[in-house]
Task: inverse folding
């Protein structure tokens, strides 16, 4: 399965949320019980890691049999972002160490004016 390509837009100083349902080719939600999730945001040049989100840390919530994946960045985590764009991907680990990259794409920053 090829990862979905989805660009995300982050408003600096505001809460960022993204949620979706992972479905199979028949449109049925995929059972995510026992799975873990991880996501990293990096600047492109240099390829510097700036944020890591994981289900273990509570940044990503996985909805079991409903196939939901929900992530959140609090305002204090979006304020330090400095560059306007970068790349990210989101991976789900399930079964015996099998990893699926669900999403990948660019992230864009909308700079905060009000402080």
Result:
């Amino acid at each position: 399965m090829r990862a979905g390509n989805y660009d995300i837009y982050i408003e600096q100083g505001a809460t960022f949320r993204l949620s979706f349902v992972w479905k199979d080719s028949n449109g049925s939600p995929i059972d995510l019980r026992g799975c873990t999730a991880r996501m990293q945001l990096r600047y492109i040049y240099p390829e510097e890691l700036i944020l890591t989100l994981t289900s273990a840390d509570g940044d990503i919530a996985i909805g079991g049999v409903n196939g939901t994946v929900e992530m959140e960045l609090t305002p204090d985590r979006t304020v330090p972002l400095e560059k306007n764009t970068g790349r990210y991907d989101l991976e789900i680990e399930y079964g015996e160490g099998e990893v699926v990259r669900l999403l990948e794409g660019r992230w864009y920053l909308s700079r905060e004016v009000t402080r």
Notes: The chain has one helix and nine strands. The radius of gyration is 15 Å.
